[in-house]
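Sequence, please.
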């Protein structure tokens, strides 16, 4: 029984891991979410607060700009995908599994 469930879970993981294009889309959505969640009145420099305020007006365009300035290295691990992200002085490692992307580290544009 346990072996059957394990095989089913691995099969689902294999079939639902995001490819490179889907990973970029998921990453863009994560960046856009980060922009929306940031406090424009935070403890940043005035220029950073102004840039964030502008980004909040059009989070999609700002996320596109950040993603275009980001280097992403996609590695297919068969069951999951690993994505190393570098950009704007920040780095993160993301894992794609079950059509989701989970990131550890500072995403570009998050500070």
């Amino acid at each position: 029984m346990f072996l059957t469930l394990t095989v089913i879970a691995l099969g689902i993981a294999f079939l639902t891991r995001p490819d490179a294009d889907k990973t970029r889309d998921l990453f863009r959505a994560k960046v856009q979410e980060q922009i929306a969640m940031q406090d424009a009145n935070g403890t940043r420099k005035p220029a950073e607060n102004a840039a964030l305020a502008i980004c909040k007006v059009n989070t999609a365009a700002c996320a596109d700009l950040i993603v275009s300035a980001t280097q992403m290295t996609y590695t297919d691990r068969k069951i999951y995908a690993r994505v190393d992200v570098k950009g704007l002085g920040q780095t993160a490692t993301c894992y794609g599994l079950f059509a989701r992307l989970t990131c550890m580290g500072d995403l570009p544009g998050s500070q």
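Residues 2-105 form one domain.
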